[in-house]
Amino acid sequence: MQHRYHHVVSTALACTLAMSVLAPTAFAAPAVAATANLAPIRLGMIEGMSGPFANAGEAVERNIRFAVEQVNARGGVRLPDGKHLLSLSVFDNKQGVEDALLQLKQLTDQKIPFVLEGNSSAVAGALVEAINKHNARTPDNRVLFLNYSAVDPALTNEKCSFWHFRFDANADMRMHALVDVIKNDNKAKSVYLIGQDYSFGQQVAKAARQQLQAARPDIRIVGDELHPIGKVKDFAPYIAKIRASGADTVITGNWGNDLTLLVKAAKDAGLHLKFYTFYANSLGAPAAIGDAGVGTVRAVAEWHPNAIDGNAASDAFYKSFRQRYPQPKDDYLFLRMDVMIDMLVTAIEKAQTTDAVAVARALEGAQYRSKFHEASMRASDHQLIQPLYVAVMQKLADGGIRFDNEGSGYGFKTERYLAPAATALPGTCKMQRP
Fold this sequence. Notes:
The protein is of the alpha/beta class and 434 residues long. The protein folds into 2 domains: 5-169 and 314-385, Rossmann fold (3-Layer(aba) Sandwich); 172-301 and 387-423, 3-Layer(aba) Sandwich (Rossmann fold). The chain has helices at 11-22, 54-73, 97-109, 121-137, 171-182, 199-215, 236-245, 257-268, 285-289, 312-324, 335-351, 356-363, 420-423, and strands at 5-8, 41-47, 77-79, 82-84, 86-92, 114-117, 144-147, 164-166, 190-196, 220-227, 249-252, 274-277, 297-301, 367-369, 374-378, 383-385, 388-395, 410-418. Helix 1 (11-22) crosses helix 2 and helix 3 packs parallel to helix 4 (121-137).
């Protein structure tokens, strides 16, 4: 089967574009030309670029390209033979496991050494297993899997792999941050859990039940429901169930259109609840929620545009992304993806090779520091440890925030900051190293 991918950034185009767009910002180092005729270091992103979650895949692609362009603007990756630019190829898996495995085969046939994926924990689990087998069979063509969003805790626990690194907080870590806020909310008495029916959604519900029981045993869970992922067009029946349950709070890990349609249905029904979410700060959700979300809708993330008041570096980072992608619909910046590419480049330069074993060893225990963020890659399970922010929705016109999301007039304000040490949870990984 012929693979499908959107496009490959040519080395010359990537460098030229990065220099022209990023040179005026604080995030573009003085451009240094890469060594002529050296092959680029290729990254292969396997993601759902078509279907109901295409907007989420497109948002990821913008973020990865933004990070790649920054590296290329400063001259690329320094190896013994000179400076190599990064090149990104995007493979469309249509958000399916079987298609993802087909794209992985195409990617390895092209000898692309780094695999990027994240918008499905089910896909990520299949890729980990397939990459384990591939690397055992073909030691001369091993690949590393860099995971930017697949947050099923199993991926760094019982299914952990030497070849897999996760740059997002896992579902248990994210839920821990949300529960840290809920436990102090005296008005939270009855909680409804709703999520997508696959490994991630199931884990979110499990984590919510366990952590609420430990932190607030007085809270009643009045609903616990999973729905088909990407197939529900009208969430009104689900909202009717939530209303009937008497819930005052909803916890959901929904993302993409499944989140947007859920909160829109609640708004249309006039149901005013507190929503504790993983992803309500993006992909159309703020506009869909509107005034109903002010002070009641929360999201958890490793960073957001209003995360740090008065931090010039944080604001400059966000503004440089908006300069690169000025359309309001493209306003979704994940700091973790920039961190991922930066840490990968540093590891390649430390290893002085793109060999998967050497780069993996350089990533283990690696530290990341900027003027507004810090993170470390835990060697025991390849889980990135970084801060988490719980933020509550605000109206830009009210003056409490500097930036809104997606031109909606609504943004998020930090309500709770958890330092890296406070987000780290124990793991069960028994790492097998080559």
